[in-house]
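Hey, can you fold this one?
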Amino acid sequence: MTDNRGEPWAVKSMDELLALARAMEQEAIAGYVALAERMRHEDRPDLAEVFEALRAEEEGHLGNVERWIGRAHLATPPAVPQLPPMFDDEGAFLVAPELLSSYRAFSTAVRNEERAFVFWTYVAAHAQNDDIRHAAERMAREELAHVATLRRARRLAFHDERNLAVSGAGTTPSSLEARLSQLLEERALRSTGKEAEQLAALASEARQRSRELLVPPLSPCPSLGAVSDRVAGGLLPLCQFLLDFYLDFSDRARNEETKLRAQELAGSLIRCLHAVRAQG
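Sure. Predicted structure:
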């Protein structure tokens, strides 16, 4: 999916929203089909299987959209005019297959779902009526669930491929958010103009989350383990680690209030990741 941050889609009707949702899923399916075929051609059946699984996941998402179209009594939603490419294989189709891995494949899928989440939040923010806003918010929630599913798969792939040493220091969400704020401030000082302003705003949001996480605190999630020095020292790795934590915590929440809180935190981290990656 391309970066539509500058000019978010101004969706004018439910027909158009559903057509856009269908087109996004169809393009993702086509992307994974092509990648799976290339992996088979390059004698990498292990990765072909991964991309086939991702294709099947997207086909499930498309099925949900098609059922929604059916309930809306739309025979065929209108075509989306001049739709730019939305699926991004992040170079996986061009890089030598020896350099690919299951972890990288799932990482590509995760980032596509994250971009879709950000996209639908923009659509919701610019909706022209409540029906479109509610539908876009529903799509954003579904994308967030997809992110959580794929991140779990990516973690498994990561642990299969690497065994990193970790330390147990500073792994509370509040302290990690404070560290994230510091890293964002440092990046802001090295930037100029709008980029510096955006990074400073993200740093302020991280500081606010750090304070809010003190009362009441979120308990550590054992499934994520401790955070390594390498993760705590890098802006993108730390963003990703915190996002994993919040999504994992949401999965294990015992009440709706806690679950929604963790999901809101995850949404904030996805937006932060998206902004930092866009700045390079």
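Residues 173-278 form one domain. Let me know if you want another pass with a different chain boundary.
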